[in-house]
Amino acid sequence: xxxxxxxxxxxxxxxxxxxxxxxxxxxxxxxxxxxxxxxxxxx
Length: 43
Prior knowledge:
Number of helices: 1
Largest sheet: none
Low-confidence stretches: none
Shape: rod-shaped
Number of domains: 1
Order of helices and strands: H
Helix content: over 70%
Distance between the termini: 62 Å
């Protein structure tokens, strides 16, 4: 049996991980978009 506080902390930790992953993903998407734009400009 885990205390409500422990569950809350665990939820916050997983939430933070998810937010970090999402931030990384948006950075990767932007890099890909910029890369495509650069390729288009070169042509």
